[in-house]
Specification:
homodimer; alpha+beta; five-stranded mixed beta barrel; two-stranded antiparallel sheet; 12 strands; globular
Chain lengths: 602, 602
């Protein structure tokens, strides 16, 4: 184990819990009854998870500390990364994992995405920086598969699926971060139908590295003369090296201008790229001009689920490290025991340590349940039609900002709780907790900051189709609540959640009123808090769903069930009450951040 | 400015706010009417703050990034630190700042501690790692001054006050962190009256460095044959080098075994020390045998105020950096503005950014007010007698865990909010926010973890003298509330706080009942949450007090007042409601973390 003698623990996720979610809670394997997924059987799905587990153990976890200590550097125009990345990409390619969710007609395996999401969780828990190369390539390939002309499939997909070429999404610019409508990179159509690209992109994950032979950017740019704002943005395939007429790779005038040095997540190279500085950068239009942003949202939505998933996966690793320590570390005695001559007790026996552990565990397991639920909706959307399809699409749209942001924000607290359990050691580099704390801080920022997702949820999703999305969600949750009400051991929590949902409904109506009376700015001023509130309730739903499954199951182990009931009770006792203050604030008529002179904040 | 081209901003604290607290809110200068402090006048106190400001600018702030990048290393048995530390210590010594609060009879200036606390805030905001050498030396010297035999005063204090010798507190051992009663370092009395010391101490801040000529440890050890537990702990002065009979410094068998590599706060060396490995380490008893812990608590209480203060000071620096950026960075448009052809707006104009800024500002300014209030109580305790003295002592005892832990915990969120304002840049090392986020994470750990302070507050302070401490506090707060009720612009917040205090009273009674019915473990199981709740209300009190001062004042600038009212309203609208969920949880009869099998947390 080349992890520099850092205390890591030996477990970073629970296979038992993952299987419980996949096969008991979601019954995700039943999806193979649909034609599209019918090549798979339950055994094959399990083998895929087994193989991922083994791969993570061998290629990812052993390098998690090393990647943090040796960050990528720009050397002679190329970004040098840890060389295990090359193996990770190639082995993933060889095993068909990069194309696992792609369609058969482009060489994929048509695996339900709920299983590739589960696999991605394992990889992220083992080593987040180590798994993003593959994830981004999958996402970029998916865009090419769905939106690009077929002639580009053969040109790009095989090399991406084999792990030889990297895929990226190239959106952000110095003047266009949260405000994508301000993208200024230009594209000028040439006689041969290709486009001449010119501009700068920043914060491009895996934007360049010596682990791959080429990088394929799915890039947003503005065709000359296009309308201002989001309506004038097009998408292009812009490779780092393009294939010339002789079938040979030649430079495409994409320059790596810099690599960011970051507080964490250091194993992944984040690049500053300059396109077309020598007037010789060519891109291929994806789909139609000016529709780029809508295409990109497909990849962004997948990427957003992935961000939430990996906030939870990093927190999972931090949780298991701190759990191991809590069981081993002797310190103090029970509060009822005053005799200092008795031996000290393991700190897991202290109530506050149990609280810190249950906080992490319920966050990690509940969030994973939510992310898998979202992927399951994506799969169901694919295989269903008409109203059914619209329902799943709508649910996914509504839940995406929540599934991205709730775990992203909470993972900061969860990994912080892990540090706290280690005490002074937690602040040192001899223990892994501090690294996880640094790594996960990116998640509330990339793929849209939390504020952006608050605006998305309250400003767009809640109101879309006259509130249809929320109606669908309430139906889903009430189904869970209805079942839970039938059992003594879940009834009370079910009633609490039911009441909270009613409050949420009233709150939303109240806010609509604010919108009419005071305008959009007041309406959206606390959208971030609305998102937080929404997230807590959605997690409560996950926990109720899990305990329902425990009540239904005749095969699950009793201790396993008991553990889930404990978690659910923790969540309803300690986390759900946090909604109270949020309700109070969101219902208040007092505007503090609207119509106030910014100069007073000094 | 040798700060490696990192974006820092040019301001790290508000002198205007500090002066407001000192001279308007606390009227701390009136304390010079008491004999003990009568050597000072208001002008001299202001000059001291001016000089500190200038010193911070020159000797601390320019090195804040450098200290993070070049951490201390153990080389040939000595810990090498940034060489500016030597200048910081010597200049502080020359200017009389290390002895500023000490008694005149030992060479001090008898400055009110509320002013040295204010000075310490400035230093910590400029560069936290840079100011701890001085702070620890002041604390250690204070212990010697108060508890050690006079013969040790001359031996140690002049060299410590001059900044040539470092002072430390050496408590923690591998088996005794939170559980101090398990200290096993031994002391054996020798014929000459000195003690032979043997043992290991870990996490000793400034425990060794090449910035000073000697290190004076105030060390806890157990005299052979002493009772087990806290009742058998004695305190010793153990220098790294002792003065031999010829007046020459010779080695005292104190070995630097290691220096910790940490996630932040890297400029300060944290040492692992071995005492008496060659049977040749000598210590001098402080006061009487077996009373060491009670002596140490004096220093720890001062140190705890200092921890809270510096959590706020780091957050202050992060706040001003993010404020500067928020005013400069253009991104997006107002939610009411759809036209993408209009120029982008500074992000401070977005409601969510204002929220993130007000969160930081109210936390920083409110916490500073609390820390100064505590120091003021300490000063008043010194100059008063009888009941009055007991009252100030009791208030200080009660508020210490709150003044330590509320800022320590909240500073993690506050510095995180600063990162969030910087967006993707906030995650990079090109901007200072990430460093502050890493630095401040230590504060919830050192000088007692948050859990320990929860136990201290609920298990000791709230109940002591039949609840006398809480009574005193309520009197103080109700005086503030009473005044605030008279003004339209503070009345509503006053009524909210009054109601919350009643709830807190009921809650405390409820918990006393739990203690009787279910025992001490159930009573203390959520002590950390009780502490959090208590902290929010105490901060609310600070804000109400500040707005009272604004209403009273005829000299303060109107815009300045308006800013304080905005802050107070923010705090009551966004922070006070967080108590609701805490009340709910703390009043619940359901035990989740007590009497539960730890094996279920897996």
């Amino acid at each position: 184990m080349s992890n520099n003698n850092v205390f890591l623990g030996d477990k970073y996720y629970s296979r038992e819990h993952l299987d419980f979610l996949l096969f008991d809670v979601l019954k995700a394997d039943t999806i193979i009854k649909y034609d599209y997924f019918s090549d798979h059987d339950k055994e094959a799905l399990q083998m895929y998870i087994d193989a991922t587990d083994q791969f993570a153990k061998e290629y990812l976890f052993p390098y998690v500390v090393e990647m943090d200590r040796k960050q990528p550097e720009l050397v002679d125009g190329r970004i040098r990364v840890h060389q295990i990345h090359k193996n990770i990409m190639r082995v993933s390619g060889e095993n068909g994992w990069i194309s696992v969710s792609a369609a058969k007609e482009v060489g994929g395996l048509q695996m339900p995405s709920v299983f590739s999401t589960a696999a991605s969780f394992i990889l992220g828990a083992a080593n987040y920086s180590g798994c993003v190369f593959v994830g981004l390539t999958m996402g970029a390939a998916h865009l090419i598969e769905v939106f690009a002309d077929k002639k580009y499939h053969n040109l790009y997909l095989p090399k991406m699926f084999s792990g030889e070429w990297q895929g990226t999404m190239a959106l952000t610019e110095p003047g266009a971060g949260s405000s994508l409508s301000d993208v200024v990179t230009t594209a000028e159509k040439l006689e041969d139908g290709s486009y001449k690209i010119s501009g700068q992109k920043i914060f491009i994950s895996c934007g360049d590295s010596d682990a791959v032979d080429n990088v394929v950017h799915l890039l947003l740019a503005r065709v000359k003369g296009a309308p201002a704002g989001t309506k004038g943005i097009s998408m292009f395939i812009v490779p780092r090296e393009r294939i010339n007429d002789n079938g040979v790779l030649v430079g495409n005038d994409v320059i790596s201008a810099g690599v960011y040095h970051k507080m964490g997540y250091k194993g992944a190279p984040i690049a500053h790229l300059i396109f077309g500085e020598n007037d010789n950068c060519r891109g291929a239009l994806v789909g139609e001009e000016n529709k780029g942003l809508s295409y990109m949202f497909q990849m962004m939505n997948e990427a957003r689920i992935s961000v939430g998933l990996h906030a939870a996966s990093i927190s999972s690793a931090a949780y298991y490290a701190s759990l191991k320590y809590a069981n081993e570390r002797l310190q103090g005695r029970k509060t009822t025991e005053k005799n200092p001559e008795l031996p000290q007790t393991a700190i897991i026996n202290h109530a506050d340590i149990k609280r810190l552990l249950l906080f992490q565990k319920t966050f990690v397991e509940g969030s994973l349940c939510l992310e898998l639920q979202c992927s399951y909706y994506a799969d169901m959307e694919r295989v269903s039609d008409g109203n059914e399809k619209e329902k799943y699409n709508t649910l996914l749209e509504l839940l995406t900002p929540v599934a991205k942001s709730y775990p992203a924000e909470m993972s900061n607290f969860s990994t912080s709780a892990a540090i706290q359990i280690f005490g002074g050691y937690g602040f040192t580099k001899d223990f892994i907790a501090e690294q996880y704390y640094r790594e996960t801080r990116i998640h509330a920022i990339h793929e849209g900051t939390t504020a952006i997702h608050g605006l998305d949820l309250l400003g767009r999703k809640v109101a879309m189709n006259n509130g249809k999305a929320v109606q669908y969600l309430m139906q889903e949750i009430m189904q869970t609540v209805g079942y839970a009400k039938q059992y003594e051991n879940t009834k009370e929590n079910a009633l609490v959640l039911e009441k909270k949902l009613e409050q949420l409904h009233s709150l939303t109506l109240h806010l609509m009123g604010v919108s009419q009376k005071e305008g959009i700015e007041a309406y959206l001023s606390d959208a971030t808090l609305y998102l937080e509130l929404f997230g807590i309730l959605v997690l409560g739903w996950q926990w109720l769903k899990m305990t329902n499954t425990c009540n239904k199951s005749t095969t699950l182990d009793n201790e396993f069930k008991e553990s889930k009931f404990l978690c659910c009770n923790y969540f309803f006792e300690y986390e759900i009450p946090k909604t109270e203050g949020l309700f109070t604030r969101l219902q208040s008529e007092k505007r503090v951040t609207v119509n106030v002179d910014a100069a007073l904040i000094d």
